[in-house]
């Protein structure tokens, strides 16, 4: 671990960012350029004291999980992320895998979306980032681990719960779309990747998936118009706009409703409902 290089790199990257680059309010007049240390710590979900020690060359070696959080908080490119890992004494993640590093360009767009559901996912349907309306609509994806992070995995392994988000008449189309999307991911990531391991996992445990996989459908699974069912608000008719990274390994999904409709009102209501659940009415 090169403490001096790590400290200098973190300091310089922090000073290059402005609050509005990361979705933070500018606040009162700043005496130093860039973000404050405590703001980086907040974005990386770590203590301000720990981050300060890293910049002062006093901290212990950070874990790969913490480095990944710092790379996201500082809006690092893939090359900068890899450098961060190396100076911290770790091997950089394999770029051929569907990792957690989010493209800075998508993060910038997501940071400017606060009034409508928006989320960033990878090719395996793993949510990498989501804003508050998306968290209210889909639940908090940050609590999931392992294969449970993948929407494709959950769709086939937990159909009774995962498919409730869609109307019954649309579930067959969504099922085919999940399989076709995984086939597309496998073609770009390769059989030895996590996409290949996900195919093996689903083939072992889901007869439904195995039968559909044999049909060899290939397509990206994003529909431009759909109905989503919120457990408290009910069905919401939305349009889905998608922005891909250049290599199409990640996508920003933005959900909007037709202006001046009940569906638009329901999307606004998400900010009030949040992730809370309500007890059934009692007579």
TrEMBL record:
Q: Could you name the domain of life of the organism this protein comes from?
A: Bacteria
Q: Which Pfam families does the entry mention?
A: HTH_31, MLTR_LBD
Give the signal peptide as a residue range, or say none if absent: none
Which SUPFAM superfamilies would you find in this protein's record? lambda repressor-like DNA-binding domains
What terms describe the molecular function in GO for this protein? DNA binding
Where the record annotates domain HTH cro/C1-type, the positions are 34-81
Question: InterPro entries under this entry?
Answer: Cro/C1-type_HTH, Lambda_DNA-bd_dom_sf, MLTR_LBD
| Protein name from the UniProt record | XRE family transcriptional regulator
Question: Which classification does the entry list for the species?
Answer: Bacteria, Bacillati, Actinomycetota, Actinomycetes, Micrococcales
């Amino acid at each position: 671990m090169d403490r001096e290089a790590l400290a200098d790199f973190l300091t310089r990257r922090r000073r290059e960012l402005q609050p509005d680059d990361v979705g933070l309010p500018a606040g009162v007049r700043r005496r130093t350029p860039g973000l404050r240390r405590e703001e980086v710590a907040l974005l990386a979900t770590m203590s301000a004291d720990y981050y300060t020690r890293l910049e002062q060359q006093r901290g212990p070696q950070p874990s790969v999980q913490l480095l990944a959080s710092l790379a996201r908080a500082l809006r690092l490119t893939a090359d900068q992320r890899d450098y961060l890992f190396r100076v911290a004494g770790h091997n950089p993640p394999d770029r051929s895998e569907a990792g957690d590093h989010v493209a800075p360009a998508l993060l910038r767009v997501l940071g400017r979306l606060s009034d409508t559901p928006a989320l960033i996912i990878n090719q395996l349907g793993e949510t990498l980032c989501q804003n508050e309306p998306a968290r209210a609509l889909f639940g908090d994806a940050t609590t999931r681990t392992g294969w449970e992070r993948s929407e494709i995995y959950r769709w086939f392994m937990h159909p009774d719960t995962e498919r409730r988000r869609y109307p019954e008449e649309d579930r067959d189309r969504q099922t085919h779309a999940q399989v076709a999307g995984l086939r597309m991911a496998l073609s770009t990531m390769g059989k030895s990747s996590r996409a290949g391991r996900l195919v093996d996992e689903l083939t072992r445990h889901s007869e439904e998936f195995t039968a559909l996989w044999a049909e060899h459908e290939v397509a990206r699974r994003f529909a431009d118009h759909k109905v989503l069912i919120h457990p408290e608000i009910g069905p919401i008719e939305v349009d889905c706009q998608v922005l891909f990274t250049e290599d199409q390994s990640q996508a920003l999904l933005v959900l909007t409703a037709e202006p001046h409709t009940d569906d638009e009102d329901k999307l606004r209501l998400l900010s009030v409902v949040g992730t809370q659940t309500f007890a059934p009415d009692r007579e």
